[in-house]
Structures are given as C-alpha cells and as structure tokens.
Amino acid sequence: MNPLRFCHFVCVGTFLLLLINLTSVAQEPRVLTLANSIEIAKKSNLTVQTAEQNLKTAEAQVRSARAGLLPRITANGNYTYFKDVQKSVIQAEGGFGFPMPGEEMDEMAPPSADNESELIELEFGAHHNVQGTLSLTQPVFAWGRYYYGYQAAKLNYQAVQRDLDAAYNQLRLDVSEAFYAVLIAQEFVRVAQQSVALVEKQLGIAEASLKAGAATNFDVLRAKVQLANAKSQLVRAENAIITAKNAYKTVLNIPLAEDVSVKGALEVPEKHQMLALNLDTLIEQALKNRPEVRRTQLSEQAAHKQVDIAKTRSRPDLGLFTNYQISQNERLTQMNRIWSVGFQINIPIFDGFATRAAVQQSESTLKQIQLGGTQVKVGVEFEVRNAYLNLLGAQTLIDVQREAVAQAQESVRIANLQFQNGIITTVALTDTQLALAQAEVNRLQAYHDYVVGLARLEKAIGQTLQQ
After folding, report:
1. From CA 344, how far away is CA 347, in angstroms rounded?
2. How far are the Cα atoms of 43, 295, 297, 306, 375 from residue 370, in angstroms, in the given order?
3. What is the pLDDT of residues 126-153, one digit of tens each?
4. In angstroms, rounded to a whole number, what is the distance separating the alpha carbons of residues 189 and 91?
5. CA end-to-end span of the chain
6. pLDDT at 103 (0 to 100)
7. CA–CA separation, 141 vs 343, rounded Å?
8. Is the distance from CB of 346 to CB of 142 less than 8 angstroms?
9. In sequence order, what DSSP letters do the residues of 389-426 get, joined into one string?
10. Other beta carbons within 10 Å of 366
C-alpha cells in the first residue's frame, strides 16, 4: 500500500474515533446530588432572583430615606447675553440734571439742536452677564419625621431579607421534593424491571413444564398475560421518570432538553430511631425561626413608624438655609459676592384634613399587618402539626413495609420451589410475585414519604433537624 495513502487512512480513522468519543462524552447525562441541586437552584431559580431584586430595591429605599437626614446642597448658574441694553439720557447741567445747592429743581428742557451737546446717554446693564448660586438646606427639627422614615425603611429592608430567607426555605423544599420524585421514579423502574425478569423466568418454567406434560396451556397463557402486564408497568414507570425529570429541571431552571440524572438514596437505616420530637417544642421553634413570622413582626414595627410620620404632618418644622451668590459682567471691576443664612419655619394651619386621613390610613394599614401576622402564626402552627403527623406516619410505615418485603421475598422463594416441583399452579406463583412487587413499591413509597416529610418538617420549623 502507498505509505501516503496509509497515513491518510490512519489520520481519518483517528479523527473519526476522537469524534465518536467526544460525542459519547457529550451525551452523558449530568449527575446531580441533592446538595448540588439546591446550589444550582439558588443561582438560577426565578423566584429567588425576584426576591434578591426586591432586596436591592429595599436597600435603595434605605439610602433614599437616609438622604432626608443629611444636608441638601444645590448649585446653579446661568449666563445671559443681551444684544441691546436699556439706555437713558440725562442733562449734564446742574450735575446731571440735579439742582445746584440753593437752587430749585427746574424741568429739564427738551432736547434741541442747541442743547444736544449738554445731554449724556447712559446704558443700564451689561451685554454679558454671569451668575452662580450655591445653596444649602438642612432640616433642624421636624418632630422625628425624617428619622422615623429612615427607621421604617431599615425595618422594611430587614423584612424583605426575611422574604429572601423564606424563598430559600421554600426552594430547598421544592428541590427536595422534585429530587426525591425523580429518585423514586428511578426505583420504580428498577422494581418494574425485576418484575419483568421474574415473569419471564416464570414463563420459561411454564413452557418447559408444558413440554414435559407437567403443565397446561392455561399456565403458559397466564404467564404471557402477566408478562405483558409487567412490561406495561415498566413503560409507565419509564414515562414517569421523564415527567419527574422535567418537573425537577423546571425547579432548577435548567433547559428541559438537557439530560440529567440524580444520585441519592431513599434507604433509611434499619436501626434508625425516630427523633425525639416534641410537638409543642417544634411549634415554639417555628414561631421563633420562621422568616415569615419575623417578617410580619418587622412589617408591624415599620407600620408603627409610618403612623408616627403621618402624625408629624400637622406639626411645624424648622430648617436652616444658607446661600452664596456670585455675579459678574463686563462693566464690573470686581465680582459681586453675596452670602446669606437664615432659619425657616413652616407652620401647617389647615390642610383640608389631609393629615387626619393619612393617620387613619396608616393606622388601618397597621391593623391589617397585625391581622396578617396572626394568620401567618396560625398557618405556621398548622403546617408544623401536619408535617409532624405525616413524618410519624411515614416512620411507622417504614417499619411495617420493611417486614412486609422480607416476608414477600421469602414467599416468592418458597413459591418458586413449589412451582418447580408442581406443588402449586402458575396462579399461586403469580400472586406471590405480585405481592412482592407491591411490597417493594410500598416500601419505596414509605421511604420517599419519610425523607420528604422530614424536609417539610424542617421547612415548617425553619431549621435543620439533627439526626
């Protein structure tokens, strides 16, 4: 073979092999754990991003309210050009038209050709005029109006921080539920695959027994029907994985076209003991730690400040002002400089009952927040009680289903031996296998309910439970 052609084939083959490897690597799904999923969701979830933007808005409101406590300095300037300036004519006699000492004021004679030389034309103003002003104003006393506004803004900022914490807590629960939904769907596929394998094995035994004359066509047909049903369950389980993964990727805000897989376990150790939880203690922790409860408390404090601000609108306020002004034009030999300082007092006399309406509105808002806080506490207590009872139920089912699976596995083992020896029929064997599959499903569901119930209880009390 031509060496050049051989090298060409080698290079092309190497390139194709590399391309195939890269394609296979690119098609491998991204494997995510629960911790990875929560971190990804924190960075990309739209609800959290909205809460973060609300926090930035509240921070800007704090800076805006603080500005009311600080001096306000403004500067302005202008340049004015007059093409024509005002002119006036006066008579030079008698000191520019004014009487000499001891003389009376006479009317100025109208200008004539004989006395035009005795008139003087004067211009008032200048063509080019520049003026600048620097002003400073500072509230001195306003019955705490600006300070209350600053405090209300800070309290509102802290309340919005609690909204962000609540969004994180809810997101952690949403991610956990979606993650474990994918995990249990994967486990259901595994159970369905095991069921298909068992029924296929059973069908093989039935067909062999039929050839040996130890079984009938009914046993073979029953096994085939059972195999079709098992394969249908497998298809449903595989479709459920796709649905669960789509919901999972939606929570994480990642493209639905991206192939992902989850890594985790639903197993609970056999010697696992239920946490020594006291319902009253859990409710107390929830009312103390839940960001929603703290948010209503901060909002109530901010609403009190708003009531105080509304009440100050009917009271006088005192302010300090100072101005520094400069002006210059071509006629001045030296720039004009004027500085002034003073105090200003504003005394409201009648505002059309606007202050009274503002106070009533603020008090009504405060009452609404207080009622909302009571509703939040009731809702939190209900959530804790519900999560606690569900967790207790899941723990009980774990112990029951663990024993049920062990018994079902032993029943299948005995039934297989009996079927091979012709002691039982295909129907009896199928029943034991169905019982095992159902027990496996129930066990997995109990594990799923427990881990999800634990996540819901942690969200309900606003903190992680130590196991």
Report:
1. 10
2. 34, 11, 8, 14, 9
3. 889 999 999 999 999 998 899 999 999 9
4. 116
5. 72
6. 55
7. 11
8. no
9. HHHHHHHHHHHHHHHHHHHHHHHHHHHHHHHHTTSS-H
10. 19
Q: Which residues are registered as beta bridge partners of 72?
A: 137
User: Which residue would you say has higher pLDDT here, 375 or 210?
Assistant: 375
Between 226 and 132, name the one with better pLDDT. Answer: 132
CA 318 to chain CA centroid, nearest Å: 42
In sign, the C-alpha dihedral spanning 169, 171, 173, 176 is negative
Q: Which tokens hold the place of 194?
A: 């095991």
DSSP label of 462: T
Give the burial string for 174-188 (b: 16+ CB within 10 Å, else e). bbbbbbbbbbbbbbb
Q: How far apart are CA 138 and CA 68, in angstroms?
A: 9
Contact indicator for 55, 101 with CB cutoff of 8 Å: no
Q: Helices 145-212 and 46-67, interaxial angle, to 10°?
A: 170
Q: What does the pLDDT read at residue 150?
A: 95
- Closest by CA to 416, choosing from 424, 406, 408, is 424
The reported pTM is 0.75
C-alpha to C-alpha distance for 159 and 62, rounded to whole angstroms: 12
How does DSSP classify residue 260?
A: E
State the amino acid at position 248 in one-letter form: Y
Long-range contacts (CB closer than 8 Å, 24 or more residues apart) made by 235-238: 236/192, 237/185, 237/188, 237/189, 237/191, 237/192, 238/189
- Per the CB < 8 A criterion, the answer to whether 252 and 45 are in contact is yes
Token pair recorded at residue 77: 């300037």
Query: Could you identify the residue written with the tokens 């029907």?
Result: 225
Lookup: tokens for 325: 């002004």
Q: How far is CA 143 from CA 313, 344, 385, 413, in A?
A: 9, 15, 47, 86
**Which domains are seen in the chain, by residue range?**
30-70+142-314+352-461 (1.20.1600.10)
Question: Binning pLDDT at 50, 70 and 90, where does residue 120 land?
Answer: confident
Side-chain-side CA neighbours of 202 within 13 Å: the count stands at: 34
Q: Are 253 and 46 in contact (CB under 8 A)?
A: yes
| Beta bridge partners of residue 122, listed in sequence order | 88
Checking if the pLDDT of 94 tops 60, the result is no
C-alpha span between 212 and 220 (Å, rounded)? 13
* Whole-angstrom distance, CA of residue 100 vs CA of residue 90: 15
User: Does position 262 have pLDDT exceeding 60, yes or no?
Assistant: yes
DSSP state of 268: -
SS3 of the chain: helix, strand, coil, percent, to 5: 65, 15, 20
Which 8-state DSSP code applies to residue 117?
A: G
Is residue 90's pLDDT more than 50? Answer: yes
**Coil, strand, or helix at residue 158?**
helix
